[in-house]
Amino acid sequence: MIAEQKRSLIMLVLLGIAIFIYHLGRGILGALGVDPPPGLEFLYTAIFLCGVVWWLRAEVQSSAVKRLYCAGLLAYTAWPIIIPYHLLKTRGVRGLLPLLALIGIFVFARILAIVIYLAVFGFPPNVITD
Question: What is the DSSP secondary-structure string of 100-117?
Fold first, then answer.
């Protein structure tokens, strides 16, 4: 049981790292007015969905819930509903802490991107004069 919880934590950390790196870079590129390359968007989508499925599989192994038939398709279409429902059903309200941590990582990455942009380029002139 401990090894399964450790595997789940490792998957959660890797998913958090992917979210942080992508959204930090996306925030900086967005502040510069540059769109990220389509390949990067595709790669992040693939990494995110694989991370969600691997995390969900690690979570399912540590609980009495039966495995999903096609976790990839289900995660692709309904992950915002499946993950919170699964965490609430298996762990109660305490189960939402990992999800809140991932949301916090997303917000922190975006705020850090803004701070980095402002530290490097300063305020745009039209923002101060308006």
Answer: HHHHHHHHHHHHHHHHHH
